[in-house]
Each structure stands twice: as C-alpha cells, then as structure tokens.
Design a protein that fits this description.
Layout: E1 3-10, E2 14-22, E3 27-36, E4 40-41, E5 44-45, H1 48-66, E6 68-70, E7 72-77, E8 82-92, H2 101-112, E9 120-132, E10 135-138, E11 148-159, H3 160-172, E12 176-182, H4 183-191, H5 194-199, E13 201-206, E14 211-217, E15 220-227, H6 231-242, H7 246-256, E16 269-272, E17 281-284, H8 285-309, E18 320-323, H9 332-340, E19 344-346, E20 352-354, H10 365-390, E21 410-412
Helix pairs in contact: 1-3, 4-10, 6-7, 6-8, 8-9
Bound molecules: adenosine-5'-triphosphate and magnesium ion.
C-alpha cells in the first residue's frame, strides 16, 4: 500500500486533477479529471472566477472517476513567478560529538537567511550537499565527526500575490492547498533517469504559456527558471501569418505542424480558409514549418542564453529532456539538438499504473510528478520537524513502513463512475 494523494496541475491550457496512490516504485492512478483552463495566461491568474470554475470541474471529474471526495491537494506553480538561487550556510559543531539533525537545521537556517525580494516568500528549501571540514560534497553527514559544517542549498521563493491568487481559485473549488510544487521539478521527477540526474541534465517543460527549466546535477537540482514562450505563441504566429482564427491555427498546427523544415517535402500543401476569404486556399506545409521553426529556434536560443548566463554551458553531458505538450510537435528533438548543441530526447511520465493510459503523454509530466514530489517534500518536512523536536537523527524513510505521513482530507464517499450501475 502506498499513500493516497491528490495533485492539481493548473496549466495555461488545461487543469489536470489526479487522485493517485504513490507507491515505492510507481504511482497507481485512481482517477483523473482534465478540463480546459480558463482565466490563466502564461501561468498567471487573470480571472479568479473563471479559473475557480475550471478547477472545480476538473476536481469534480476526478472525484467521480475515483470515488473519492477531495479535500486537499498539491498544486503546481509555473516557474514564471519564482526566484531561484543557490545559497550556502555554515555552522560550527561544538565538542567532539557526531553531526546531528539540529546541526543540519542550523546550517540550513543560515543558508536560507538571504534577503527575499519584496513581495516574495520562501517556497522550497532544498539542501543539495554538505561539506564537513575538508570533506566536500557529502550527501548526508549525519553521524560523522567534524568542526565546521557547510550546506549548499537551492532556494526557491515565489511571488506572494501569485500564490494567494492561485490559492483563492483552488479554495473556490472547495479544496485546501496542501503545498505548491514548482512545475519543472515535478516534471523532472517523472521523466529523468537517475543516471541523467547524476551526470547533469536539463528538463524543458514546454507548456502552452511558458517553458519551465530545471537543471539537475549530482542527483539534485541546481537551477530553476522559465522563459515566457510556449505552444500558444507558436499557434499565435501561425494565426497571424496565415490570417487564421486562433482555434483553426491550433488545429492546423496539431495536424500539419512540424518544427524541422528540413524534413518537409517542399511540394506538400494543405487547404485552409483564411479570414475574409470565400474559397479555400492552399498552404505549403514547408512554409508552416518555417513559421514554427522560427519560434522554436527563438525558444531554444532564449533557454541557451539563460544557461550561459548561469554558467551551466558544457556541464550537461546528458543533454536536454523535452517534455510538456509543446514537445509533441514533430521535429522538436532535431531542432533542440541543432540549436542547443546537446543530446535531446522527448519524454513522458514513466512508472504509472492503474487508470494511467491517458497520462502517458509529455503534456502530463507535471501533473503526475506533482503527486510524488509533493509527497516527498511533505515527508521530508515532517521528518525534519519531528527530528528537530526530538533532537535526534531522523529515521530513513524506508524505516517508517510506507511513506510515513497520512495525508488527511480525502475520503472515499461514492463508487467511481465506471463501477456505478
Ligand atoms: N500533438 C501536439 N502537437 C503539437 N503541439 C501540441 C500537441 N499537443 C499539445 N500541444 C501543445 O502543447 C501546449 C499545451 O501544453 P501543456 O498541456 O503542457 O500546457 P499547460 O500545462 O496547460 O501550460 P503551462 O504549463 O505553460 O502553464 C499547447 O500549446 C498545445 O498546442
Ligand atoms: Mg504545464
């Protein structure tokens, strides 16, 4: 048995609520509710009532599918509204005793004591590695001897107004926000292999409104960020250049779109009906691909600019893992390869079972990752808080039987839809 949890992925184009059981090696999906998102733009709330109603429908669908009444959930947050920095903190170890959890906490407190930007609050504090005297890069120094303990952390703070607005929308759906989880960390959790995380890899979650970035090295996260370019901008370009309504441009993109013009036969055409024209006109698929390629090239160049500015260039031997709905465009891997000059692959959630078929798409990486990472963060916080209280080293999570903490507020109330008479 695993832990029953709920995640609500609030994207720019879709809301996805998942009820699942997080087990040691997989996530068992009990129910899903997907609903088009309204009242969101580039990961930001633009209309509380509209978004609240979209979340409500998504939650109700997941309730009907799973048979559970949802009281609380982990909620995704676009990396567009965050500030992420690496910070280290130091503490002395008195006497000749072993390092205990209170020492770790003191070092972490020192690392998080950085001035926050106005209107921002701390969201994630992720210890990356420890240095104990001359020993560098220790994963866990508990029980070791030393005099000077340093921790390197990745700190993510988020705009308080963005958090409160999202919280308000989720509460309108009758759900309490258990914790926010930043998108690309959730996606990274389900699409990366341990080898990739250890060697150095970048996750790009190409969504509708934004592309969220996370860099993992030595098994932990080193960089989180976003660029404000996503699939909707590609569709807007197509709509603009071909004089098509947005919905038709989206349909054209999904049916004929390709990010790599080198793969397209120059003679191939498709029919469309532009604004104000009576007759269908023919468009070259190559021209469509050139429109898409221009925006996608810009996207990858913007990402590279971030990588170079943050000094990660040349440090990512495992390359880039593309996910998010935008990565479904054919040709993305080749263009990523060409522009960013690193290995690339497109990935979707792995290790899911139960009602999981519709989630096996890059568009649902954040939605699935949210369950597992939210729970891991919760357990980590609880363990640290307990250990601090008891002033003794925390137990390893596998000693506690299952995942350690009961997540209340979700109650089996009725039969799932497909089991009802
Ligand atoms: N088969 C496909 N081919 C090309 N593009 C696709 C395909 N399926 C989805 N997309 C694009 O993916 C985008 C939506 O991706 P996704 O569902 O990951 O976004 P989101 O989570 O709602 O938004 P965000 O994370 O940016 O807030 C849309 O722009 C859509 O056009
Ligand atoms: Mg998304």
């Amino acid at each position: 048995m695993g832990e029953l949890v709920v995640g609500i992925d609030i994207g720019t184009t879709k809301i996805c609520t998942i009820v699942g059981e997080v087990r040691a090696n997989d996530t068992y999906i009990l129910g899903i509710g997907v609903e088009p998102a309204r009242g969101m733009r580039k990961g930001m709330v633009t209309d509380v009532d509209l978004l609240g109603a979209s979340i409500s429908s998504s939650v109700h669908k997941a309730e009907r599918a799973s048979g559970y009444e949802i009281g609380r959930a982990f909620v995704s947050l676009s990396a567009n509204h965050i500030l992420a920095i690496n910070s280290s903190g130091m503490t002395g170890i008195s006497g000749t005793r072993e390092v205990d959890v209170t020492d770790l906490e003191r070092a972490i407190e020192a690392a998080r004591a950085v001035p926050l930007s106005h209107g921002f609050e701390m969201l994630h504090i992720m210890p990356r590695r420890y240095n104990l005297d001359e020993h560098k890069g220790i994963r866990s120094p508990l029980g070791m001897h030393g005099f000077r303990l340093e921790v390197e952390t990745h700190l993510i703070s988020a705009s308080s107004t963005s958090l409160r607005n999202l919280e308000k929308c989720v509460e309108k759906a009758g759900v309490y926000v258990d914790r926010f989880v930043v998108n690309p960390l959730a996606s990274g959790d389900v699409v990366l292999t341990q080898t990739e995380r250890e060697s150095g890899v970048m996750v790009l979650d190409i969504g509708g409104g934004t592309t969220d970035i996370a860099i993992f090295m030595e098994g932990t996260v080193w960089y989180t960020g976003a660029v404000p370019v996503g699939g909707q901008l590609v569709t807007s370009d197509i709509a603009h250049v071909l004089s098509l309504p947005f919905d038709l441009a989206e349909a054209v993109k999904l049916e004929f779109g390709h990010a790599d013009p080198r793969e397209i036969n120059a003679l191939e055409t498709f029919p469309v009906q532009p604004f104000g024209e009576e007759k269908l006109s023919k468009v070259k698929r190559y021209d469509l691909s050139m429109i898409i390629n221009a925006r996608i090239t810009e996207l990858f160049e913007l990402v590279m600019r971030e990588i170079v500015a943050s000094d990660f260039e040349g440090l990512l031997p495992a390359g880039v893992v593309l996910t998010g709905g935008g990565s479904l465009l054919p040709g993305m891997k080749a263009v990523a390869n060409q522009v960013m000059k690193m290995p690339a692959r497109v990935a979707q959630p792995e290790n899911i079972s139960g009602m999981a078929d519709s989630l096996r798409s890059p568009a649902y990486s954040t939605s699935v990752g949210l369950l597992r990472l939210g729970l891991i963060m919760d357990i980590e916080d609880t363990r640290r808080a307990n250990a601090r209280r008891e002033n003794r080293p925390p137990r390893a999570s596998n000693e506690s039987g299952s995942f350690g903490k009961f997540l209340g507020g979700i109650v089996k109330r009725f039969l799932p839809e497909d089991e009802s008479p």
